């Protein structure tokens, strides 16, 4: 038995890797998340069972422990189990927790990387997250830290030129207020909604006004001078 922990990419079903497709081709069962594009399931044999284990905010969902138990139960029954997660399994994907659970049960696993939405969504737009003389560093941070943690690990004084926030829309007002303690209110911001998907949409603003705009999820926020530089590319592409 082996569990393939696979990154499905940011949204567009064609952004999955060839290695992931090969693993899906031989799957007996696929456990998939809500951000993994369901079109990708077509790479699995028709006979493979498809189990949705989505964890969308606000919906009735399985806990991480329940998901771990389900993966282990499937691994004990089948030769090839695919665990399909949106983006990259290790970028805010809790993939690390899943492999630790597999290790406890001595279950073999292989991790197949995916294109994370943090980089894949801006890149597919033509928005470079680094650019010579504009940005030489990037920080990817969660905008929604586990509230049960005894102490926050998110400190908004990051010094990277480009800041990319995932899961940041629910707390956008609080987060931007914190970031403005360290960066000017004029700092440009680009929000990418449903990156690489048919309903992809961009919302431009600044740290000072982005929280007043209507934003649909899933979305990432890109903060920094690369956004101003991208506006020229955006206009050119229209
Ligand atoms: C639990 S995290 C999972 C991230 C995923 N592992 C990755 O590498 O992209 C979910 C967050 O990823 C971001 N996200 C995922 N897919 C997205 C997309 N297509 N467009 C914009 N943001 C996306 C959003 O910030 C969303 O709240």
UniProtKB/TrEMBL annotation:
Naturally occurring in which organism (per UniProt): Methanobrevibacter thaueri
Reaction(s) catalysed (UniProt annotation): uroporphyrinogen III + 2 S-adenosyl-L-methionine = precorrin-2 + 2 S-adenosyl-L-homocysteine + H(+)
Domain Tetrapyrrole methylase positions: 3-210
Listed CDD domains: SUMT (cd11642)
The EC number(s) this enzyme carries: 2.1.1.107
GO molecular function: uroporphyrin-III C-methyltransferase activity
Family statement drawn from the similarity comment of this UniProt entry: Belongs to the precorrin methyltransferase family.
Subunit structure, as described in the record: Homodimer.
Superkingdom per UniProt: Archaea
Enzyme class: transferase
SUPFAM superfamilies xref list: Tetrapyrrole methylase
GO biological process: methylation; siroheme biosynthetic process
Keywords on record: Methyltransferase, Porphyrin biosynthesis, S-adenosyl-L-methionine, Transferase
Record InterPro entries: 4pyrrol_Mease, 4pyrrol_Methylase_sf, 4pyrrole_Mease_sub1, 4pyrrole_Mease_sub2, CobA/CysG_C, Siro_Cobalamin_biosynth, Uropor_MeTrfase_CS
Function: It is a step in the biosynthesis of both cobalamin (vitamin B12) and coenzyme F430.
Protein name: uroporphyrinogen-III C-methyltransferase
């Amino acid at each position: 038995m082996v569990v393939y922990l696979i990154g499905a990419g940011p949204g567009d079903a064609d952004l999955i890797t060839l290695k992931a497709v090969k693993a899906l081709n031989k799957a007996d069962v696929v456990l998939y998340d809500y951000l993994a594009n369901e079109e990708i399931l077509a790479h699995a044999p028709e006979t493979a069972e498809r189990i949705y284990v989505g964890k969308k905010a606000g919906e009735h969902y399985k806990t991480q422990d329940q998901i771990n138990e389900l993966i282990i139960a499937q691994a004990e029954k089948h030769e090839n189990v695919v665990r399909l997660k949106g983006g990259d399994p290790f970028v805010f994907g809790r993939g690390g927790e899943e492999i630790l659970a597999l290790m406890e049960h001595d279950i073999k696993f292989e991790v197949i990387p995916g294109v994370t939405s943090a980089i894949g969504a801006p890149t597919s737009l033509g928005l470079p997250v680094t650019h010579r003389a504009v940005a030489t560093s990037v920080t990817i941070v969660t905008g929604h830290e586990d509230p049960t943690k005894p102490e926050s690990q998110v400190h908004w004084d990051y010094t990277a030129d480009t800041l990319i926030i995932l899961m940041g829309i629910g707390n956008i007002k609080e987060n931007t207020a914190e970031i403005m303690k360290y960066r000017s209110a004029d700092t440009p911001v680009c929000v990418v909604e449903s990156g690489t998907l048919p309903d992809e949409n961009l919302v431009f603003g600044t740290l000072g006004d982005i929280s007043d705009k209507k934003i649909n999820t899933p979305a990432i926020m890109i903060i920094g001078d690369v956004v101003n530089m991208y506006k020229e590319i955006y206009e050119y592409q229209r």
